[in-house]
Design goal:
Elements: E1 2-4, E2 9-11, E3 21-23, E4 56-57, E5 76-81, H1 87-90, E6 99-104, H2 106-114, E7 120-124, H3 125-130, E8 135-145, E9 152-156, E10 165-168, H4 174-187, E11 192-195, H5 203-212, E12 222-226, H6 229-232, E13 240-243, H7 244-252, E14 256-264, H8 270-285, H9 287-298, H10 302-312, E15 313-316, H11 319-334
Parallel strand pairs: 5-6, 5-7, 10-11, 10-12
Antiparallel strand pairs: 1-2, 3-13, 4-6, 7-14, 8-14, 8-15, 9-12, 9-13
Length: 338
């Protein structure tokens, strides 16, 4: 254990690690499978499954007896995160009349909402902070963790307090800012950020190349990854892992909110908020079944997917989570990151 005189906090070291960082062989919490687990695959028989990025599910409008469209019911187009973690928030709306669902990675949803491509989106909270004058929360649905999040991780070949350059996942906005806040607050280091190698057209192919080259001399020393790829494509050759949800908890004692529902400011979102709240409650109640049905498609072992959706993640904003959002925004603005 190494003390930080500047912050009065313990720095992580190779010998003694506080919560949030362990050497790979001393994984925090329940162990994530090593990169050698089988390539899980198979058909999904449950219709309530998530969607791959770029997918758009639209459903026929109800028609009046004369065959014309019936506009008496509102239509909602939702922008949703395409990862396993979002399933409980929207799965029960798949196939529902007058509801359209458009799935994308988190970093693309703000542009989708701004362009009018959806009425409401599951935005990274950083995108809300940047456009507060134009956006407002819709209901209390969110993707959050109270400690370890499992799928937002920095993989490093050097101890965390020695990291200076971080290769970042382009699918993330919130996690990139969170990593910078944590490194500045815990280690007094301003990270140099560089994009993951590759042309950016296929994130999975990019991560696969990095994962395969982890032991190579030219592999990045430290990588931030988010989402399902942390489970299905964890890079090899990295002896340290920092779970950013656990590190935030260690730093602040608070949970962390990664994403929540937001829509254009000034509109009446009350009916949509009720719809989303009911969908969330039903999804959380059936989270175990959703995890079992969708695990193979997302590359997760079933048991870990069930634990993740049922216990690791939280889906309803609490006062502590709202406090955490305010604290995160304050720290990010203080450091000039927003």
């Amino acid at each position: 254990m190494v003390d930080s005189p500047r912050l009065g906090l313990r720095r992580f070291s190779t010998r003694s690690q506080p919560r949030g960082c362990k050497p790979r062989h001393q994984f925090i919490g329940k162990p994530r499978p090593s990169s050698g687990f089988p390539a899980w695959a198979g058909p999904l028989y449950n219709p309530h499954t998530s969607m791959t990025p770029g997918t758009q599910a639209k459903y026929s409008d109800p028609a009046s007896p004369d065959g014309s469209r019936d506009f008496s019911k509102p239509t909602a187009t939702l922008g949703v995160v395409s990862y396993l973690n979002a399933l409980p928030l929207y799965s029960t709306l798949i196939g529902r009349e007058r509801v359209a669902i458009r799935a994308a990675v988190p970093a693309k949803l703000a542009a989708l909402l701004a362009s009018g491509g959806c009425d409401c989106a599951m935005l990274p909270v950083v995108d809300y902070f940047r456009r507060k004058n134009a956006l407002e929360p819709v209901g209390d649905g969110c993707i959050a963790s109270d400690g370890e999040t499992l799928t937002v991780r920095v993989f490093s070949r050097v101890p965390p307090d020695k990291v200076t350059r971080l290769c970042v996942d382009g699918e993330s906005h919130t996690s990139v800012i969170l990593a910078q806040v944590i490194w500045r607050e815990l280690y007094g280091r301003a990270l140099e950020l560089v994009p993951l190698p590759g042309d950016g057209t296929s994130p999975d192919e990019t991560i696969r190349a990095v994962a395969a080259s982890g032991a190579a001399d030219d592999a990045p020393d430290s990588i931030l990854l988010i989402g399902d790829k942390v489970i299905r494509q964890a890079p090899r050759g990295y002896g340290f892992e920092v779970d950013l949800g656990a590190a935030w908890k260690h730093l602040t004692g608070l949970p962390f909110v990664f994403a929540a529902w937001f829509g254009p400011r000034g509109r009446d979102h009350s009916a949509l908020a009720r719809l989303l709240g009911a969908a969330r409650d039903a999804g959380v109640a059936s989270a175990a079944q959703l995890a079992e049905a969708a695990a193979a498609k997302h590359g997760w072992p079933k048991a870990i997917a069930v634990e993740y959706l049922c216990h690791t993640l939280k889906y309803a904003l609490t006062p502590a989570m709202r406090e955490a959002m305010d604290r995160f925004e304050m720290l990010a603005r203080r450091e000039g990151l927003l």
